């Protein structure tokens, strides 16, 4: 304790008015660096290296599995029984199961016609399918438009139900839960769910329902997302790279090994019996889809992912919408992990290996470690070693491991490999929000249950860039200046300058480029609608 006495920390030389502020700060820094900063930074480096190793092992494992699946793996119709459903002359269409199609929406002015039209265009015996539009819109004009669209399809002979609530309790989960309570749902065996911007192909049900009919152990069949606006701008290309890895690798590996993966909340078909046995929809987190999937898996139900079946949908094409989406997708899983950890441990219906897979691989590494290590290590700890040369990061941890992880992540989108540098910079910036959201979820802090519907533009996408050139948006301080990004960018820039002047680690090029990326987004100049090649 003597080392931290006031005489040591604040020597008499600081009292002299002749010493300028810079010299005083330098003296304080030198006094606290050795006994406090260096040990703490070394601990942080060790923890970050451990997390990097965990993430590296997970990525390599999934890379090996997906390679084996692609080379030797059997297709879904070989792993599970699949036979096309045929007419029965005696009982007619009664041989086909009754299917409910749910479309939850909230003020979806730009896309409601697309989703309703696609659902009503699904090929299935007309007397064996019910379209259910769950409209939580608060705008009376949009409500009226959606209602009229449902009436238009009903006049064509489509069995379509327009359902509204007098509140938004539970948000999407609440709407889906209420939708299943209607009397006509009791006759349904399966429920297909599509968000308001999703447009399934007419043969969607013919390619999914037979798996559920012929394999009673299957509770869910999930299709892949196909992004209609991936080429809209550079930001949507970055999103495509991240999500393609999820669908190409994570979902496929989960389906092929443990018959478990996270339900994507849309473009999937549930066996209603499995949904009910799992306890139905719950609104305790912002990832009601993942919550349901985990509970159903713990009941012993298996899931099947069909990578060849793609459903068109839309990526967020404004940075504000993307930030809200990523907050929900990062905060929700972390919060669900906190709530379900002991429930998974105590479960007796699934094997020990599956429990380990769900807790360690699915939740801890992918939903917690992956977010935290990206920001804390590459945007905080690594730059800090420039200011504290006594602490060194081994080259394998600073260069080799992240390079391999990046390559394994990027292989899901071969057409965008030339954009990998931009993707790395963008992902590092987004890791700031994901890390913050992850801690909010783990600690159940402030915005843990914040639910903001992702803005969809639909056909307006083609007109938006032209209108932007004519109409100048009003400058709003909170919308355009992102203080956390600017602060992080300033920190990285300072570390880069220090490295140029005094450093030994020679990270200055990375620091300056990454700082520039934070500044670009921090000043609101992401260039959302800038077209790219």
From TrEMBL:
<dbReference type="GO" id="GO:0051753">
    <property type="term" value="F:mannan synthase activity"/>
</dbReference>
<keyword id="KW-0808">Transferase</keyword>
<feature type="transmembrane region" description="Helical">
    <location>
        <begin position="368"/>
        <end position="388"/>
    </location>
</feature>
<keyword id="KW-1133">Transmembrane helix</keyword>
<feature type="domain" description="Glycosyltransferase 2-like">
    <location>
        <begin position="190"/>
        <end position="383"/>
    </location>
</feature>
<keyword id="KW-0472">Membrane</keyword>
<keyword id="KW-0333">Golgi apparatus</keyword>
<protein>
    <recommendedName>
        <fullName>glucomannan 4-beta-mannosyltransferase</fullName>
        <ecNumber>2.4.1.32</ecNumber>
    </recommendedName>
</protein>
<keyword id="KW-0812">Transmembrane</keyword>
<dbReference type="GO" id="GO:0071555">
    <property type="term" value="P:cell wall organization"/>
</dbReference>
<feature type="transmembrane region" description="Helical">
    <location>
        <begin position="400"/>
        <end position="426"/>
    </location>
</feature>
<dbReference type="InterPro" id="IPR029044">
    <property type="entry name" value="Nucleotide-diphossugar_trans"/>
</dbReference>
<dbReference type="InterPro" id="IPR001173">
    <property type="entry name" value="Glyco_trans_2-like"/>
</dbReference>
<comment type="similarity">
    <text>Belongs to the glycosyltransferase 2 family. Plant cellulose synthase-like A subfamily.</text>
</comment>
<feature type="transmembrane region" description="Helical">
    <location>
        <begin position="481"/>
        <end position="501"/>
    </location>
</feature>
<dbReference type="GO" id="GO:0047259">
    <property type="term" value="F:glucomannan 4-beta-mannosyltransferase activity"/>
</dbReference>
<feature type="transmembrane region" description="Helical">
    <location>
        <begin position="43"/>
        <end position="69"/>
    </location>
</feature>
<dbReference type="GO" id="GO:0000139">
    <property type="term" value="C:Golgi membrane"/>
</dbReference>
<dbReference type="Pfam" id="PF13632">
    <property type="entry name" value="Glyco_trans_2_3"/>
</dbReference>
<keyword id="KW-0328">Glycosyltransferase</keyword>
<feature type="transmembrane region" description="Helical">
    <location>
        <begin position="507"/>
        <end position="530"/>
    </location>
</feature>
<keyword id="KW-0961">Cell wall biogenesis/degradation</keyword>
């Amino acid at each position: 304790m003597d080392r931290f006495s006031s005489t040591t920390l604040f020597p008499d030389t600081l009292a002299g008015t002749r010493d300028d502020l810079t010299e005083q700060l330098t003296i304080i820094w030198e006094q606290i660096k050795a006994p406090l900063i260096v040990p703490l930074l070394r601990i942080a480096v060790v923890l970050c290296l451990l997390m990097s190793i965990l993430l590296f092992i997970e990525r390599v494992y999934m890379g090996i599995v997906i390679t084996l699946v692609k080379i030797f793996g059997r297709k879904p119709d070989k792993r599970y029984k699949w036979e096309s459903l045929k007419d029965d002359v005696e009982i007619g269409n009664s041989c086909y199961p009754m299917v409910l199609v749910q479309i939850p929406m909230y003020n979806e002015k730009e896309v409601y016609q697309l989703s309703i039209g696609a659902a009503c265009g699904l090929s299935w015996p007309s007397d064996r399918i019910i379209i259910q539009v769950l409209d939580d819109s608060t705008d009376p004009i949009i409500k009226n438009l959606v209602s009229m669209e449902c009436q238009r399809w009903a006049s064509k002979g489509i069995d379509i139900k327009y359902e509204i609530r007098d509140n938004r309790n539970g948000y999407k989960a609440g709407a889906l839960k209420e939708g299943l309570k209607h009397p006509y749902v009791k006759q349904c065996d399966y429920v297909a769910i599509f968000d308001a911007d999703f447009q399934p192909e007419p043969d969607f049900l013919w390619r999914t329902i037979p798996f559920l009919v012929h394999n009673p152990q299957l509770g869910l069949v999930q299709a892949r997302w196909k992004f209609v606006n991936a080429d809209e701008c550079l930001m949507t290309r970055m999103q495509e790279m991240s999500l393609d890895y999820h669908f190409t690798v994570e979902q496929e590996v989960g389906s092929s090994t443990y018959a478990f993966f996270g339900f994507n909340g849309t473009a999937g078909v549930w066996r209603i019996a499995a949904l009910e046995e799992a306890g139905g929809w719950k609104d305790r987190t912002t990832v009601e889809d993942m919550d349901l999937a985990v509970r159903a898996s713990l009941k012993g139900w298996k899931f099947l992912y069909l990578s060849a079946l793609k459903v068109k949908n839309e990526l967020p094409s404004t940075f504000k919408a993307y930030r809200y989406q990523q907050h929900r997708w990062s905060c929700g899983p972390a919060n669900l992990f906190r709530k379900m950890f002991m429930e998974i441990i105590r479960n007796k219906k699934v094997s020990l290996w599956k429990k380990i897979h769900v807790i360690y691989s699915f939740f801890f590494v992918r939903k917690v470690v992956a977010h935290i290590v990206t920001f804390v290590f590459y945007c905080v700890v690594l730059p800090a070693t420039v200011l504290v040369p006594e602490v060194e990061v081994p080259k394998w941890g600073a260069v080799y491991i992240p390079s391999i992880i990046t390559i394994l992540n990027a292989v899901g989108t071969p057409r965008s490999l030339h954009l990998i540098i931009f993707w790395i910079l963008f992902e590092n910036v987004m890791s700031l929000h994901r890390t913050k959201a992850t801690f909010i979820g783990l600690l159940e802090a402030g915005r843990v249950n914040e639910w903001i519907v992702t803005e969809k533009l639909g056909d307006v996408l083609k007109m938006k860039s032209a209108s932007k050139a004519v109409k100048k948006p009003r400058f709003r301080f909170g919308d355009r200046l992102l203080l956390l990004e600017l602060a992080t960018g300033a920190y990285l820039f300072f570390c880069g300058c220090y490295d140029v002047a005094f450093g030994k680690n020679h990270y200055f090029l990375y620091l300056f480029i990454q700082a520039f990326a934070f500044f670009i987004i921090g000043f609101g100049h992401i260039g959302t609608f800038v077209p790219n090649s």
